[in-house]
Automatic annotation (TrEMBL):
Name of the molecule in the record: NADH dehydrogenase [ubiquinone] 1 alpha subcomplex assembly factor 3
Pfam families on file: DUF498
InterPro entries (UniProt xref): MTH938-like_sf, NDUFAF3/AAMDC
Residue ranges of the TM segments: none
Length: 130
């Protein structure tokens, strides 16, 4: 009986949706839940695993830069506390034409939902919080 194991796929929701709740290491949106961090991009909502959530790097945002054309502002939820973005990361995003705004994950979720409701070209990177 080949193929009877569980297939793990990259988490992806192919649309834009407000974040209904966050905490306990994950998020709720579109009547679903996701454990871990998220990228909310024009192509949809993607599971995201930054190498080090405390020290985000330009490589963590490759998928964001790839979709830069559809993004005016990137909200970066850095966890419980606001953490500045590295000079390297800010330069990579600026080169792609993306204005990035770091804030706590809670503030980023609230701001994302408002901008999404206004149909703005917003994207977000949310580090999960407990």
């Amino acid at each position: 009986m080949a193929g009877s194991g569980i297939v793990i796929r990259a988490a992806h929701y192919p649309g834009r949706a407000p974040i209904e709740a966050y905490g306990n290491g994950g998020f709720r949106f579109a009547d679903m839940s996701h454990r871990g961090s998220l990228l909310c991009l024009p192509s949809g909502i993607h599971g995201w695993q930054p190498a080090d959530p405390i020290a985000l790097t330009a490589a963590d945002f490759d998928k964001v830069v790839a979709e830069a054309e559809g993004i005016e502002i990137l909200l970066v939820g850095t966890g419980e506390e606001i953490r500045p973005l590295s000079k390297e990361l800010r330069a990579a995003l600026k080169e792609a034409g993306i204005a990035a705004d770091p804030m706590s994950t809670g503030a980023a979720v609230r701001t994302y939902n408002v901008l999404l409701a206004e149909d703005r070209a917003v994207a977000a990177a949310f580090v999960a919080v407990d």
